[in-house]
Amino acid sequence: MTTYQITTELTTNKKQKMTVDQLGFGQIFTDHMFVMDYTAGQGWHDARIIPYQPLSLDPSAMVFHYGQTVFEGLKAFVTAENEVLLFRPDRNFKRLNASNDRLCIPTIDEELALEALKQLVIVDREWIPNAPGTSLYIRPFIIATEPYLGVSPSKKYQFIIIMSPVGSYYKEGINPVKILVEQHYVRAVVGGTGEAKTGGNYASSLKGQELASKEGYSQTLWLDGKENRYVEEVGSMNIFFKINGKVITPALNGSILSGITRDSMIQVLKSKNIPVEERQIAFEEVLEAAKAGTLEEAFGTGTAAVISPIGEFKWQDEKIIVNNGEIGEVTQTLYETLTGIQNGTIEDAFGWTIKL
Ligand SMILES: *Cc1c(COP(=O)(O)O)cnc(C)c1O
Predict the structure, then answer these.
(1) Which atom of ligand 1 is nearest the CA belonging to 264?
(2) What residue ranges do the domains of the chain occupy?
(3) Mean pLDDT for each 10-residue chunk of the chain (356 residues)?
(4) Nearest C-alpha to atom 5 of ligand 1 is from which residue?
(5) Which CATH architecture has domain 7-167?
(6) Is there an atom of ligand 1 within 6 Å of 236 CB?
(7) Fewer CB within 10 Å, N- or C-terminus of the chain?
(8) Count of other CB atoms within 10 angstroms of residue 338
(9) CATH number of 177-343
(10) What angle do helix axes 89-102 and 110-123 make, rounded to 10 degrees?
């Protein structure tokens, strides 16, 4: 095993911790962060854990102008036995490198990144909340830092990991969300950056999101960028439908983000002998199933919410109510199985969790 040189400078000024109900999502950050620099010709260097602090960047740093940046999102949990579990972190660093490749950012050593993450979580161990449904949300990201206003890949980068204790996503139990099917804007096209986890995809999704929330819908369902016909994703989650006993999710076609929760759900479904298909699905098919009474469930998946049941779709002037606006049986089972594996109450037969 390689040993990595990661230095640690501990804070002398620990922050006040919040109570569980003050947590929310992504507003509070732990005492430390991980930083590593990249310089062309030298590679990645100076891996270090330091007190959480603002960055100092030149206003001409390339990330501010042309959006050369990638990110990840994963969680750490404490079990009832007071052990710390990370959920499939290797997949996040693998995907980070896939995003790096698309954005012309130099790849990182995935093992070093995992080692850095483990050390950082151990340093800020006391920040992991232990109330049911809570976790430590971890945000690794890379930014182009070279001060230069030319359009080309930056010659300097920073890889940073910050962490935020987060409350239960579902304070009053899991309530199905209402989704507006977007007719005008698109999130991504095949050949674009939809498959990469990069800030620009989110910037371009805000407008549709804003219009949806004005109409009283909490998220946007994105259709494909070419024909505006095939289902892609919902908000920042992958989407699943249960139609006539079969679970269907759009196949990874190049414009859809390859969710780790999506992959985990597919594996859980297969292990429970529930039929699951990854294929192209037109929204008309969902509409027809709803009319025929065979649209049984719909849900989104992603690290933050784990699973988000969908109770209603609005498509043009039609409203489609799913399962009387209630959470479905398969959705509930998937939620319990995945959260159980993540917090250590269900045996991890898949080998997904890493114990620190
Ligand atoms: C991160 C993300 C997801 C969910 O991926 P997970 O690995 O399950 O968290 C889905 N869609 C988009 C656009 C995303 O950025």
Answers:
(1) 8
(2) 7-167, 177-343
(3) 84 90 89 98 97 98 97 96 96 98 98 98 96 94 97 98 90 86 94 96 94 94 96 95 98 97 98 97 97 97 94 95 95 96 95 96
(4) 259
(5) 2-Layer Sandwich (3.30)
(6) yes
(7) N
(8) 20
(9) 3.20.10.10
(10) 130
